[in-house]
Each structure stands twice: as C-alpha cells, then as structure tokens.
Amino acid sequence: MKQIVKTMKIVTCMAAGLGLFSAVFTGCSKKDAVSGGNKTISGKTYNGIDVSKHQDITMYLIGQKTADFDDVYAQINRILEEKLNCSLKVDFLSWGEHATKYSLLFSSMEDFDLIFTASSWCHYEQTVSLGGFQELTEDFIKKYAPGIWETVPKIGWEQAKIEGKIYMVPQYNMEFKNDVAAVRGDLMEKYGFTDITTYTDMLHFYEACAKNGQYASQGGPWYQYFQAQGLSDTAGAPHSGELFLHHTLDANNPELVYTVDWNGFREYCMQMKHLADMGAWSSDILNTNDERQAGLLSGRTAVMVWNLGSCARFAKEANTEHPEWKVTICDPNSANPKAINAYINNGMAINVASKQKERAMMVLNELYTNKQLQDLTTYGIEGKHWEAVGDDQYKVIDESGFGVDANCNWGWKNQNLIRKEFIENRTPLDDKVDAMQEAWKDHVMPATLYDGFNFDSSKVATQFAAVEAAMGNYYEPLVSGLVDDVDKSIKALHDALESAGIRDVQKEIERQVAEYIKNK
C-alpha cells in the first residue's frame, strides 16, 4: 500500500526545447520538485533534521490485516506526509506463519525498514544473535526519537539490552503476563460449570466438551499448566522460552528446569493425549494457519486462551453476533499471583539492512508520541470505529472493521496516551473483566531472580538453530497430544535435542543466568 497524499495544487507547463516538466505549487511557501517519482520539499525539517527528500517506509507487523486497515492507515499516512515527508506501507506475518517466515525476511535480505518484535515469544533474541536488527545507540535514539527516549523508563532500555547493546524500542505499558480463557457460558451452564478457576477445572471442562461432540479449543492449555506449577518461560530460551522454565512462586530459587527432563512435562503430554483421543480439538491443528480467535468466533471451539485484553475484546465480539453464547472470562490460575510483563514483551526494531534507518526511527517517534496516531492505530477512525468521551476515554461504535488493539499496534503503545473504555450499557462480561483486573492489582507477583533476564544465544547460534528445528519436528505433536506413544515420542525428542546440541545451549544459559544474578 502506498498512500502519498498531495494537498497542493500542481500547475504544469512545458519547458521549451527541454522536454522537462516544472511544477508550481500554490498555497504553500515551500517549493516542491518532483524527481524520480519522489517528492522533495526543500527546507522541510523534523526536530531540526532535514527530511526534504521523500521516503517510503515499509513495516512488518504480526497478525491479520482487518477490513478497514487500509482506510485507517491512509489517515495515518496523511499525518506522516505532513510531519515527516514519508509514507508507511505495512505488511503482515500471520500468527500461523511468523514462526517460520520471520527469520527468512532477514536471511533473504528483504528490503524493509521496521518490524514488530518481542522478547522470548517474537524472535527478539534470536534475530539479534543472527545480526538482523540495527543497534540503537543512545545518541541515535535521542537524535531521531527524542520523545521515545524521554518516555520509555530506564528499566525498559535495560531490559532491551543484549550484551550491553539496545536493538529494540520497548513499548511503554504496564500489562499482566498471565493468560485467561474466553469461554462459551452457555456450554458451561449445559455441562454444569459455574466458573473455571483452576487448571483442573479447565481439564474437566475440556473433557465435557469432547464427550458432547464439541471441540474445546484449538490446542492444549500448556502455559496454564506450567504456570499452575509455579513456573514461567525464560526469555530468549529456545521455542519462545518454553524449553527452559524458571521458578516464580519460589522467587529466590535460581534453578532452571529443562522441560524435556521434567516429570511434569510427561504428565502434561499424557493429559493432552487423553484429551486429543477424546476429540477435544481437531487432529489437524498443527497444519492450520487459523488465527487464535477463529475457533471461538466461528463457534467451532468453546474456549480461546489469550491475554485478558484480547479475550475480553473477542468475547464481546462473539456476544455481539451470538448473545445466546454468553461468552465470559475465566482465570484457570486464579489462586496464583499475577506477573507483570517486561516492557520488551512488545516492541519495534529496525532492519539492519534498511537504507532509511533515520526516517524509520522518526516514524516510530511519531507513532509513539503523537496522540492522534496513538488513537488511530489503537482504535481506528474516530466517528466510524469509536468516539471520544472527554480527553482520556473512548466508546466503541463498531469494532468489526478495525478493532481496539487488534492490529499489532502493541510495539509503540504509550500508557501516557492510552484511553480507557467508556461502557454505557454494561454487561456481566464487563463487570467480570473489571473485577478480575482489580483483583489482580492486589495480587501482583513479587520480583524474581529472572526479572529482566534475556538469554543471548549468539555464542551457541548453530546449536540453537538445530534445537529449534528439532523442536518443530517433535515438540508440537507432543504438547498437542497428537502422538501414538507419549514415552517413545518424548525419548525421540530428547535424543534429537541431544544430537542438536541442547547441552551446549543449557550450559550457556546457566552461565548467563549465574552471571546475571550475581550482578543484579
């Protein structure tokens, strides 16, 4: 998509004998000259920096483009043209494909400028180790994105550092880490459930769904399982941090748990085989590119597991179309304290191969600090998708075309500019979400030894890549229960990881953990 909006009237005349066109722009004190298809505005600056030459910035986001996305970004581009003399083209990597295609963007040297990234779950540490992201020095950030430098707290920049260097602009938003479940309330009533507050409750509900010929979900509740055991994924470790877990309830315990050697892993895989054999989910879930919310919104599944904000949004959408479903929110780990995500759980990076790094950073500065752009990228078009209620609230008009927080705007979220939803006609779902948020605020997880830790895999990059390949072949079928023999499959995974060099990776993680804890 290229949206270059010119608001000045162009009057052209033929230059005698030269075959050249000159352009005269009226209603403007600056002169524009068009050369090679790019607009040049002489004297145009941004924070004192020359932006006279027009540039087209390309950005990759994660997820699926919504119906009105292009309309929203047309308005965004009008602002960027005016402020920065540039346009912004956006491409998406879907939830189903980003795990395999993200690294290919860098290995193929694709020409783009900005990309969404995140510690652990969205390729931050891995891409840094492969040399894919541009280092962001303090001087570079201060010069081209002074608003971001002033907004992101010091701890955010510290979290983003890998071997003392920054490669990401972290988002600035306090968000809880724990996932919840959006659940069909009508099916809960049908199967005799008033709520789902424990992991065991969740298993029993999945079994009830399967017994009644209803798919429970698009896969098993793996994160809910190990979180219920007081464990959490380790940032930067293989497979989005899942292969090495650390203690959260026993906050001063430095032990790393290697998932494949953990007895709890076998227990979980046995549970999932039991559910898969019952028909709790489709046998082809490993071959689908369906978005996470697809099953719930279509009625194909009874449960969607995600963060509280996403679950609330899609639960509302489902109830709008099917009020008889009575979709509600449940917390299957309600007894556990709630962890706060690191700021690097969402962020933006610059492609090291970008030829427009400076302008790309300026675009991030506008997305991050311009309230009008925050509103557009978060809520959509005012008057069509939402309307303002005072200076700091919003009311949804229609979420179907764009959706609140639905278009991977998470990398530049700025809590100083975020509006709170005004709900005129409250529903039981609204009340439950608010009550859950308030309860969480009073039950925040204490700091752990691993807070802010990010594994740098550069010293074991070859082994790390081999481990990831082995995980793809064996791990997903196991945690989805789609294997004939759990013990044989775990042994096959174990042997494949040993051959790939997992002990080298483990040794390096443990070395870095010990050093990190020592220096805290």
Outline the fold blueprint.
Blueprint: E1 9-14, E2 21-26, E3 32-35, E4 38-41, E5 45-46, E6 49-50, E7 55-62, H1 69-84, E8 86-93, H2 98-107, E9 114-117, H3 124-129, H4 138-144, H5 146-151, H6 154-160, E10 161-162, E11 165-166, E12 169-170, E13 179-183, H7 185-191, H8 199-211, H9 222-228, E14 231-233, E15 244-247, E16 256-258, H10 263-278, H11 294-298, E17 303-307, H12 308-321, E18 328-330, E19 347-350, H13 357-369, H14 371-379, E20 386-389, E21 393-396, E22 420-421, H15 428-441, H16 461-479, H17 486-500, H18 502-519
Parallel strand pairs: 7-8, 7-9, 21-22
Antiparallel strand pairs: 1-2, 3-4, 5-6, 9-19, 10-11, 12-19, 13-17, 13-18, 14-15, 15-16, 20-21
Helix pairs in contact: 13-14, 16-17
Write a brief caption for the model.
By secondary structure, this protein is of the alpha+beta class.
Task: Report on this structure.
It contains 18 helices and 22 strands. Strand 7 (55-62), helix 1 and strand 8 (86-93) form a beta-alpha-beta unit. By secondary structure, the protein is α+β, with helices and mostly antiparallel strands. The chain has helices spanning 69-84, 98-107, 124-129, 138-144, 146-151, 154-160, 185-191, 199-211, 222-228, 263-278, 294-298, 308-321, 357-369, 371-379, 428-441, 461-479, 486-500, 502-519; strands at residues 9-14, 21-26, 32-35, 38-41, 45-46, 49-50, 55-62, 86-93, 114-117, 161-162, 165-166, 169-170, 179-183, 231-233, 244-247, 256-258, 303-307, 328-330, 347-350, 386-389, 393-396, 420-421. The chain is globular. Helix 16 runs antiparallel to helix 17 (486-500). Helix content is 39%, strand content 17%. The model is unreliable at 1-37 (pLDDT under 50). The strands form 8 sheets. Strands 8-7-9-19-12 form a 5-stranded mixed β-sheet. A 3-stranded antiparallel β-sheet has the order 17-13-18. It has a 3-stranded antiparallel β-sheet with strand order 14-15-16.
